[in-house]
Specification:
Layout: H1 2-24, E1 45-48, H2 70-78, E2 82-86, H3 95-108, E3 111-116, H4 128-148, E4 152-154, H5 164-179, E5 184-187, H6 199-207, E6 212-214, H7 224-234, E7 241-244, H8 259-268, E8 275-278, H9 284-304
Parallel strand pairs: 1-2, 1-8, 2-3, 3-4, 4-5, 5-6, 7-8
């Protein structure tokens, strides 16, 4: 009996030691390891390519430009450098095309960071064939991201709350596949996660893997109460941000929500970048002017906060 008690004490001590070690690598409120920000991206500003979808073309068209031309336009006309790709903007995943795109990004001094995998697939479907097809498409997208030298990929959450077990399994499979290629998976507050300020954090913790990170979107929330609370949850563990603006007035009025407050929540939580603008308009001159306004605001706000050093 004494030996058994001693054994139980030893097992308990080992379990406690293991738990403490795990907590030391994580946020005190969670068990999911904190993925660190990338210092080289601190203070960097860029764009989510979907913002310019109505201006991106696959063939030469007057007044429009191809994805291959985007990095030059981003740098020369918008004075931005981070490219956050969206699969909807790709005419092809052919390796030769992807290498040209990677070279275009490098030649302009831009940095490509992320691929939003926005194909309308269902990786946690109840139907095995549908799940298998979704994973096949996502694996192909991850291969493309690896060719482009990206750091992150983001699967698309659906609007319906997924089955917990199938969802975690799907994320885990993608984490394994992406991890072998040096890529981390992102969770973004979209779809079913937009109504709950802690849903993305809970999902990350349930997955509980090292190669999962958070990429908050300032616009993807059901209402402002959820928005600000949700951003307070996400920004402490964020590695990138979609800084989304909806309709802007003539002098930059943004009635949908407080853009400065969204920035302050991120900054005060220790997030430093990259900040990727997501803002669209069919008029090219107008959207470029408004993206320039957003760029200048964030640069001024960062300066007021004392710079970009973490």
């Amino acid at each position: 009996m004494t030996t058994r008690r001693n054994s139980l004490k030893t097992l308990g001590a080992l379990s406690l030691s293991s738990s403490i070690e795990r907590l030391s690598q994580a946020d005190e409120k969670t068990f999911c390891p904190r993925v660190k920000q990338i210092p080289e991206l601190s203070g960097k500003l860029g764009i989510v390519t979907a913002s310019l979808s109505s201006h991106i073309t696959t063939r030469p068209v007057q007044g429009k430009f191809t994805l291959l031309e985007l990095p030059r336009i981003l740098k020369d006309e918008l004075d931005l450098e981070i490219v956050d790709f969206n699969t909807m903007n790709f005419p092809s995943f052919d390796p030769a095309y992807l290498e040209k795109l990677r070279d275009s990004v490098t030649a302009t001094g831009c940095i490509a960071t992320n691929l939003k995998m926005n194909q309308r697939v269902y990786m946690n479907s109840a139907h095995p064939e549908e799940r298998a097809e979704a994973m096949r498409i996502y694996r192909k997208s991850i291969d493309a991201a690896a060719t482009l030298g990206l750091k992150w990929v983001r699967p698309l959450p659906r609007s319906a709350t997924p089955d917990r077990s199938r969802n975690i399994t799907a994320y885990s499979e993608l984490i394994d596949y992406a991890g072998e290629r040096g890529i981390t998976l992102l969770i973004e507050n979209f779809g079913w996660m937009m109504k709950h300020p802690d849903s993305a954090i809970k999902l990350a913790d349930e997955i509980g893997r090292d190669q999962i990170a958070l990429g908050p979107d300032t616009g993807n929330w059901s209402d402002n109460e959820v928005r600000y609370s949700g951003l307070e949850n996400l920004f402490p563990r964020a590695v990138t941000c979609d800084f989304k603006a909806k309709i802007l007035g003539p002098r930059g009025e943004h009635r949908a929500y407080d853009l400065r407050k969204c920035f302050n929540i991120g900054w005060d939580a220790g997030f430093r970048g990259p900040w990727n603008f997501e803002h669209a308009h069919e008029d090219r001159k107008r959207v470029f002017r408004e993206l320039g306004m957003l760029r200048d605001w964030l640069r001024d706000w960062m300066k007021e906060k004392g710079g970009v050093a973490a």
